[in-house]
Specification:
- With 427 residues, this protein is α+β, with helices and mostly antiparallel strands.
- The protein has three domains: 2-111, Orthogonal Bundle (Cytochrome Bc1 Complex, Chain D, domain 2); 144-279 and 342-426, Immunoglobulin-like (Sandwich); 284-332, no CATH class.
- The chain is 22% helix and 19% strand.
- It contains eleven helices and 13 strands.
- A hairpin with a 2-residue loop joins strand 9 and strand 10 (375-383).
- The radius of gyration is 25 Å and the shape is globular.
- The structure holds heme C.
Length: 427
Amino acid sequence: MKNRVFHLLILLLLQALASTAQKSGEQIFTTTCVACHSIGKGKVVGPDLVNVGERRSQSWLIRFIRSSQAMVKNGDAVAVKLFNEFNKIPMPDQALSDIEIKSVLTYIKSKSKPATSSGTSKIAGKTVNPVTVNKPKSTGVKQDAVKRVTAWDTSSIVIHSKKMDGPIQAKDISAVSWEQAEAVVVPVSPQQITYPNLPVASISDLKVKSLYFGNWVAFLITWADSTRDVFVDADLFCDQLAVQLPVDGSSIPSYMMGNSGGKVHIIHWKGIWQEDCERGFRDVLDAHPNLWVDVYPFQEGELDRSKRIYAKDITAEHIVESQSFNNLPGTYSKNPVSSIMRKEPVEEANATGFGTLATQETQQAKGWGKWENNQWTVCLVIPVNTGNINKAKFTEITKVSFAVWNGSKQNIGGRKHYSSWVDLTLK
Ligand code: HEC
């Protein structure tokens, strides 16, 4: 008898666990799918899902939602056609059970009005999003422009970049010229693309100002963050910020890292690089002072044993011998991550879709970041219209989007807070 009660309890417990782990169709849609799909409001990054249950069978939808790329690779004609139509932007695999996928499909059906076809609006078009977690806070700046705006539809926001009559210095964050620039609030999304998700955003918006001079456009960006995270260790990440611009101003790439045929220019500021610039080269011993190392073999060229210089006394200036570089191939091949004498806290990169981010050969952008009173202020000065095929080209209205990482809140890589495209005009 006792045994049976015990089994029953276990069974009830398992059921309770299963039901808490399972999310409703609406929850899944509004936290995971909404970044790329609307129901009846047009194309976003992926197709409008209105009445999708009428166009495709349920078993096809379950397989596609779980892994669309597996179907593309297996040559499923519909999946291949969709993939090509959507500029080869891969839909990320969804770790959902059959029951969860069916509940999303039921939710999509319940939100599908009698069939109207509206799959023609542009990427980053006028899609109004039901999720309201990112309502801009009242900050007293440009409120009307951000009234109904969410991170996935920032297309009504306009940043007016103001013309300067001299160069803009990234390090001069408190320059008076910034007082003339208008501040615009840009909401950023919670993170629901990369697992594990972070559905509650720890940063909800950025305050953005812009100035330009000649072939340089500058942004001064501030956001609230109660911790200055400028260090990387196991499971410890740093604060970061990135600005994204289309390389060819005449077409609009996907705001999610561009797409094949739609290259983006990304300017990426990293807290740990900022610290490198301010404090100089730091080594394992700076992170773990109690670690004992006698000498590093690759520094021997510079070591005078009779003077007893130990690894802890080594600075970047000691690593100059060609034999040192035999053991530091990253530094030798100028991998920006392995730099031991960093001058700029920013990296310029390009992307044409997820997983394609690559550093640029010519690094020209300048940047500087300062953390004060629970807030980061980062200035980026970016080369544009230089004729370099990897740099942004400005048109009358240029698109720009933003991403921000909160290191102490497990933000890293795709686990970031981002906006969709915002208009930027030069005046
Ligand atoms: C990062 C963007 C992204 C996310 C997030 C995303 N999708 Fe997609 N989805 C796409 C793209 C892009 C396509 C077009 C096919 C392709 O390019 O692979 C697509 C296609 C589809 C299709 C096929 C539509 C048709 O017309 O047959 C369905 C169904 C779908 N997605 C459902 C979902 C569901 C449900 C979720 C949430 C659980 C989701 N998607 C999340 C980008 C996304």
